[in-house]
Amino acid sequence: MNATQDVENVALFGTLAADWWDPDGQSKLLHRINPTRLGFIRQAAIDHFRLDPRARRALTGLSALDIGCGAGLVAEPLARMGATVSGIDAGDDVIAAARAHAEAQGLAITYRAGDVLAFAEANPGTFDLVTCLEVVEHVTDVQAFVDAIARLLKPGGLLVFSTPNRTPASWAVLIAGAEKITRLIPEGGHSWRQFLTPDELTQKLATAGLRADRLEGLSWGPAKGFHLSADLSVNYIGTAVKP
């Protein structure tokens, strides 16, 4: 079976494992964008599964998988929202960091190191909710990767994804700005040519049998910080449903 992981990317992000949870460390951009992403995930799950928005643990009863989980910045909040959470990442180092941090927090999260294709073969139709945030732009075979996500979802399941768009604006902001100038992202962590436009990703989702039904921009401004908007030109977040 082919793998979707980019070996060089996995090695690079493995070097970040030790300070992944440091809000001022090398993963600080993820910390800054995370509240906006988590708010979107929570509301999307509540809307799709018709859950109680007033409940503190609103995702109770849902099985969730975070793909490309890193050291757990999304998996842990999902567990605190009540979901039964698993996380998978190609990097052994970041999974070790995720397990250690979850244990220290008293959170029961199942973490696995490995490629998503093999995991999907072994666990078809297992999850109500799959999250895949800032991951698809790093894989070597996007269609195979998306096919695996579709296989992992239960019928009626929900995918929440986010990824950079491939535009001049995203190159200026993420490659030139965030990587080369401000160093908010490790240099070499992204290849602009691997970014997907919303139309490209929507088509790959459709080929996998998933229906994209919501897209919003992940934007930044000095007054609002990171926020949802109609501007998809740099980064976007969305949902897709398995019929």
User: What separation lies between the terminal Cα atoms?
Assistant: 26 Å
**Main sheet: which strands, in order across?**
3-2-1-4-5-8-6-7
Strand content: 15-25%
How many individual domains? 1
Helical stretch tally: 8
Sequence stretches where pLDDT stays below 50 over 5 or more residues: none
Radius of gyration, rounded? 17 Å
Query: Which structural category do the helix and sheet elements fall into?
Result: alpha/beta
Number of strands: 8
Instruction: Please estimate the helix content.
Output: 25-40%
CATH level-four homologous superfamily name? Vaccinia Virus protein VP39
Rounded mean pLDDT is: 91
Largest sheet: 8 strands, mixed
Description:
The chain has 243 residues and is an alpha/beta fold. The protein has one domain (7-241): Rossmann fold, CATH 3.40.50.150. 38% of the residues lie in helices and 23% in strands. It has helices at 7-14, 28-49, 75-80, 92-105, 116-122, 142-152, 168-181, 198-207; strands at 63-67, 84-89, 110-113, 127-133, 153-164, 211-221, 225-229, 235-241. An eight-stranded mixed sheet has the order 3-2-1-4-5-8-6-7. The longest helix is centred in the N-terminal third of the chain and has 22 residues, at 28-49. The radius of gyration is 17 Å and the shape is globular.
